[in-house]
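User: Let's play a game. I give you a shape written as C-alpha cells, and you guess the letters that built it. Ready? Here's round one.
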C-alpha cells in the first residue's frame, strides 16, 4: 500500500531531516514552518497512525533519520524507552 505524506508531511520530514532532529515536540514546527499548532498536529497524528513516525506520548514524536523503506518505520525499543524516560525525567534500571 502506498502511503502519502500530504501537504504538510513533506515539509515536516524535510525540516527535521535538514536539522537532523530525531525528536519532535509540540510547537517545534510552528516557528520553523510558520504554521498554526492545529496545522502542526494534523500531519503528526496522521504520520503516527500511518507508522511513518513514532508517537512517544501526546505531543512528542520520534522522526526517522531517513524516509523508511516501504513507508513504515519501527524504532528499536531501547531508543523509545530512553526517549520516554528523558522526556519525563524518569529513571529506570535494566
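Assistant: Ready! My guess for every position:
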Amino acid at each position: 500500500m502506498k502511503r502519502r505524506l500530504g501537504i504538510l508531511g513533506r515539509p515536516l520530514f524535510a525540516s527535521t531531516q535538514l536539522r537532523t532532529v530525531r525528536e519532535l515536540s509540540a510547537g517545534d514546527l510552528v516557528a520553523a514552518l510558520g504554521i498554526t499548532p492545529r496545522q502542526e498536529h494534523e500531519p503528526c497524528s496522521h504520520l503516527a497512525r500511518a507508522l511513518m513516525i513514532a508517537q512517544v506520548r501526546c505531543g512528542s514524536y520520534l522522526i526517522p533519520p531517513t524516509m523508511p523503506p516501504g513507508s513504515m518505520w519501527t524504532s528499536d525499543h531501547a531508543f523509545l524507552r530512553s526517549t520516554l524516560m528523558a522526556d519525563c525525567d524518569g529513571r529506570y534500571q535494566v
